[in-house]
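DM from R.C. (forwarded with permission)

"hey, sorry to bug you on a friday — could you get me a structure for this? deadline for the figure draft is monday and I only need the backbone to look sensible"
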Amino acid sequence: MTTHHPSDAEREAYLAGQLPTPEAEAFEAHAGSCEPCGAVLEAATRLSVTLPRELPPPIGIRSRVLAALPVRRRRGLRRHWWMPVAIAAGVGIAVLVLTPAKKPAQAAREAAATAALARAHAAQPLAMLDAAEAELTSALAAAPGDPGLEDALARLASQRRSLLTLVEEFES
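My reply, with the result:
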């Protein structure tokens, strides 16, 4: 941090853009590291903006705008809303009627295939969890009461339960 404080004349020359580049850069560096000089420079360069007050609309403008809008007939509005509703209802009924129902045997085969797929995908992670559990159990036998090993074994058991719960959800 520099200790030189620029004079008012030097600050005015900077603000007017009349300082040579090396002195302007030195002035900016000083203002960036000196809080009082930075605050003075910020205050001098801050723009004061005042927004105009909102003006009320001229008297009678609302009634003139409403009078200029076209008037719709009620009968025309009713005709426009029921057509899309009728089309959507017809499509819904056609989908329900034309969609074949699943036979119980087909549904049972699909459920069995899904359950088998879930068991197949879970087999390898379960084997890895079992191997890790065996390794942690033997390490815990060598160092009984180790809190890190006990925590790891508890987390491993939780992961195994979560995986088995997912498989059971697919089987049901």
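R.C.: lifesaver. The chain has seven helices and no strands.
me: no worries. The mean pLDDT is 79.
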